[in-house]
Amino acid sequence: MQTDPQGSASFSAESYFATQPAPASLDNDRQRVRAFVRRQSEQGNKVVLVTSGGTTVPLERNMVRFLDNFSAGTRGATSAEYFLKAGYAVIFMHRQFSLQPFSRHYSHSTNPFLDFLEIEHKPAPNESLSTTPEITVTPEKREDLLSVLTAYKKVHRDGTMLTLSFVTVNDYLWLLRGVSEELSEMGRDAMYYLAAAVSDFFLPRQKMSEHKIQSGKGSLHIEMDQVPKILKPMVDEWTREGFIVSFKLETDPQLLLPKCRQALERYGHQVVIGNDLNRRKFEVVFVSRIAPKKDPAHPAATNIDDDTFTESWLRLSEKDTHTREIEEDIVNELVRRHRTWMNNGR
Ligand code: 9Z3
After folding, report:
1. Domains in the chain, ordered, with CATH?
2. What is the ipTM of this complex?
3. Can you name the residues that pair with 166 across neighbouring β-strands?
4. Which distant-in-sequence residues (6+ apart) come within 8 Å of 340 by Cβ?
């Protein structure tokens, strides 16, 4: 663990996992992932890990208060559906109670399913007999429901989705490491799609108050530590040759591209998808590296200084925002790039 000039600590991934407790469900989750990966591998399916939703940061061990991240899990849940449609098996690792593939279409706040069910009273053949009323779907909602339900049932029948959940940033980090290590068995056939909104700061267990923080002493000062940059060990150690896609969220448009490039430079993975908080539903940018140029004098060596980045924007037109989802285009583009990546490695 290192201490910066202000005295706050920054954990390496190694010191983090050596000092912070693993969630109780970790071993069981790993076993489920192992069995799922084995089955998909036998069936010749590619697998994508989709992380989704926000992480919490508890302030007390007996937790009453926590900090949260804004994400509803729309990006992750929507993308998971398009990956399934593209023939991938999906490990859907999401924040408990955030949106999930398929059921997201009928979220209680935007499209409550009870609103499009109707009770139909069938006339009794004999007045002395009473019949149980039937429940039907409002005609104008039937077509949409049928298409969602058909895709949902198929995924269940085929067993191509495994769902895991996390709540805290600690749960997330342990689970991400565990799932990545299991999935790395698939080598280049695995994709990692990191859409969860992960807290940058946390309170280590050792600094947490055991009981509810009491008021009465005026204002509250909490100093948080930095969450370790886990993309580095993820790329270098946990995922053998997997195709890794991370998301970068910013609110200042000036920072978006530099931050995406910086992430690629630091971690050396395949794609960073940049998105602005307020424009994320209709605009994203793909940033990746152009293969380093060879030095003609030393054909075996690559010149790091020559590295450059490519950036391509995906945008939905004003008209399309009401009828299409940008995740469809994101997933199609990634499936194409993943195929090239797999072919290049073989
Ligand atoms: C994203 O940028 C996602 O696209 C959103 C999706 C969280 C914006 P919603 O769930 O939102 O559809 O409401 N995710 C990654 C955010 C993040 O924490 N990235 C880390 C960073 O920026 C790196 S992995 O440092």
Report:
1. 1-102+158-214+222-241 (3.40.50.10300), 244-346 (3.40.50.10300)
2. 0.96
3. 95
4. none
| Comparison of pLDDT for 158 and 129, the residue scoring more | 158
pLDDT single digits (tens) 109-124: 888 889 989 999 877 7
Residue 3 pLDDT: 57
Could you write out the DSSP letters of every residue in 126-156?
STTS--PPEEEE-HHHHHHHHHHHHHHHHHH
pLDDT reading at 298 higher than 60: no
C-alpha span between 35 and 334 (Å, rounded): 26
DSSP-derived 3-state class of residue 169: helix
Residue 170 identity (one-letter amino acid)? N
For 70-82, the three-class secondary structure string (H helix, E strand, C coil) is CCCCHHHHHHHHH
Q: At what angle do helices 169-183 and 26-42 cross, to 10 degrees?
A: 30
DSSP state of 197: B
**Percent of residues, the chain, with pLDDT higher than 90:** 80
H helix runs in 139-280, sequence order: 139-158, 169-183, 231-233, 253-267
Q: What is the CA radius of gyration of the chain?
A: 23
Q: Where are the beta strands (DSSP E) in 70-145?
A: 89-95, 117-120, 134-137
Tokens 């267990």 sit on residue: 205
pLDDT single digits (tens) 253-292: 999 999 999 999 999 999 999 999 999 999 999 999 986 5
Tell the residue nearest (CA) to atom 19 of ligand 1.
Answer: 248
Closest by CA to 291, choosing from 277, 275, 279, 302, is: 302
Q: Judge if the beta carbon of residue 248 lies within 6 A of ligand 1.
A: yes
Apex 107 CA angle, 106 and 111, nearest 5:
60
Distance (angstroms) between ligand 1 centre and the Cα of 175 equals 17
Nearest-atom number in ligand 1 for the CA of 199 is 18
Distance CA 333, CA 291 (A): 18
According to DSSP, the residues that pair with 194 across neighbouring strands are: 51, 246
Atom of ligand 1 nearest to the CA of 99: 10
User: Structure pTM?
Assistant: 0.92
